[in-house]
Design a protein that fits this description.
The protein is of the alpha/beta class. The protein has a single domain, classed as Metal-dependent hydrolases (TIM Barrel). About 40% of the residues lie in helices and about 15% in strands. It has nine helices and eight strands. The longest helix has 18 residues. The radius of gyration is 17 Å and the shape is globular.
C-alpha cells in the first residue's frame, strides 16, 4: 500500500520523536515535512531531518517570530535552503491573532516570498484572519509560479478555489475530523482531487476523538480516513492521491515511479 505523507508536522517540538515516527510508520505514514518556526529552532529542525531518511525540512520565519528577524537570519536561511533535504520555505505568512506588529509581519513575509523565488522553493503558508492580504501579497510577488501549501486550511469553498487557481494546494488537518466542522468537509468533497494534501500539525490540531491530548504523527491516519469518507475513496486511493500531490508540490523524491501514474480525472 502507498504510504501517506504528512506535509506539516513539528517533530522538533515532540518528546521522543523517534518512537512516535515508528508508531506512525506502522499506521501507514512514510514521510514527513517539518516546517520552521523561529531561527533559534533551525538547528534542531535540521538535526532531526538528518537523523531520519524519510523526514524533510522547510525552515522559515513564522509570523510569531517575525519581530526578532535580522538580516543575518536571512543569510543563514538562504544557506539552509541549499540543503538537499530542504524542500520548502515555511512556515511563513500573516496572523491577526498574535501580538507581532502587523507592519513587521508583512515585511518579513514579503522577504520570505522573495527568498523563495531566489532559491526556487515552494512555500508553506500560515494564515489566520488575513487570507485576503496573504493572497494579495502572494499575487503581487508572483508566488503562484512557486506554489506551495496553505497549511491548516479551514476556509470557504470560494476561498479554496482562489488559492488553487494561484497554484497552491490545501493542507487538510485535524479540523476535518471535528463533528462541528461544516465548511471544510464541503471543501474536501468539492475541490479537485489534485488540490489536497494531508497534515497533522502535531503536537497541535489534534483530530477527533483525541481532542484535548497532544497530537501524534500516527493520527494522520484518522485524517486520511475522514478524507476518504468525504470523497468516497478507498484508503489506498487516499494515500496514493494525496501522496502524488505532495510529491508534486514539494518536489519530493518518489519511492515508487508507478505512484505518479494516478489519473485524477477518474476520481
Amino acid at each position: 500500500m502507498t504510504s501517506y505523507v504528512d506535509t506539516h508536522i513539528h517533530l522538533d517540538l515532540l518528546t521522543s520523536p523517534g518512537s512516535l515516527l515508528g508508531e506512525a510508520r506502522s499506521s501507514g505514514v512514510g514521510a514527513w515535512v517539518v516546517p520552521g518556526v523561529s531561527c533559534e529552532r533551525w538547528p534542531e529542525l535540521m538535526a532531526i531531518t538528518e537523523r531520519h531518511a524519510d523526514v524533510y525540512a522547510a525552515p522559515g520565519i513564522h509570523p510569531q517570530a517575525a519581530a526578532g528577524y535580522q538580516k543575518s537570519n536571512l543569510e543563514e536561511l538562504q544557506h539552509l535552503l541549499e540543503h538537499p533535504k530542504v524542500v520548502a520555505l515555511g512556515e511563513v505568512g500573516l496572523d491577526r491573532l498574535i501580538d507581532t506588529p502587523w507592519q513587521i509581519q508583512e515585511e518579513v513575509f514579503i522577504r520570505m516570498i522573495q527568498l523563495a523565488h531566489e532559491m526556487d522553493k515552494p512555500l508553506l503558508i500560515h494564515v489566520r484572519r488575513s487570507t485576503d492580504r496573504v493572497m494579495e501579497l502572494l499575487q503581487q510577488h508572483g508566488a503562484g509560479r512557486l506554489g506551495g501549501i496553505f497549511h491548516a486550511f479551514s476556509g470557504s469553498f470560494e476561498t479554496a478555489c482562489k488559492i488553487i487557481d494561484m497554484g497552491f494546494v490545501l493542507g487538510i488537518g485535524g479540523v476535518v475530523t471535528f463533528p462541528t466542522a461544516r465548511r471544510l468537509p464541503e471543501v474536501v468533497r468539492k475541490v479537485s482531487a489534485e488540490s489536497l494534501v494531508l497534515e497533522t500539525d502535531a503536537p497541535d490540531m489534534t483530530p477527533y476523538p483525541h481532542r484535548g491530548q497532544p497530537n501524534r504523527p500516527a493520527y494522520l491516519s484518522l485524517i486520511a480516513e475522514r478524507v476518504a469518507a468525504l470523497r468516497d475513496w478507498s484508503l489506498e486511493d487516499t494515500a496514493r492521491i494525496t501522496t502524488v500531490n505532495a510529491l508534486r508540490i514539494l518536489r519530493l523524491p518518489s519511492p515508487d515511479k508507478n505512484i505518479l501514474k494516478v489519473n485524477h480525472e477518474q476520481l
